[in-house]
Design goal:
alpha+beta; 51% helix; elongated; 150 residues; 21% strand; 3 helices
């Protein structure tokens, strides 16, 4: 009874290659989650900055309180994997600035090539508030420009 000898080199190669492939796939998925959430945060902060420039408030403190309330009510369930560490808005010299910072915890520390297990991102949006007088002057200037060209 002869026993047939089989080579097991495919099993050894698969045992070495499959964990590397799964690690790369996990890394790519987390990079995509990070980019998705970063883009959402920039979009939300941009919308918040535009809102802060257009809302009427009697003074700076009232506007900052309204902004904090609006940020607390911001829908955060749409973010896939982020945890916000700071959100804030302020009005300074007729410029409305909104800033935010969030973190993503990487689940497998061995695959994180940068040493830390937490990735973070920060976004800042700033817009200048227009006073009604400046807006009316701009509209009149545009009207004169359009009438002169036709």
């Amino acid at each position: 009874m002869g026993r047939k000898r089989e080579n097991a080199y495919l099993t050894v190669e698969a045992a070495l290659v499959l964990p590397a492939v799964f690690g790369v796939i996990l890394f790519v998925v987390y990079m995509l989650l990070f980019q998705y959430d970063r883009c959402l945060m920039e979009q939300d902060l941009g919308a918040m900055a535009l809102w802060g420039c257009s809302v009427e408030a009697p003074d700076e403190q009232t506007l900052e309180k309204m902004t904090e309330e609006r940020m607390r009510a911001m829908y955060k369930d749409k973010y896939a994997a982020w945890r916000f560490t700071e959100l804030g808005g302020r009005l300074e010299r007729n410029r409305f600035t909104v800033s935010g910072k969030a973190q993503l915890t990487f689940p497998v520390p061995g695959l994180n090539f940068w040493g830390k297990n937490i990735w973070s991102s920060r976004a800042v949006d700033e817009y200048r508030r227009l006073s009604p007088v400046v807006f009316i002057r701009m509209c009149r200037g545009l009207k004169n420009l359009v009438q002169d060209t036709f």
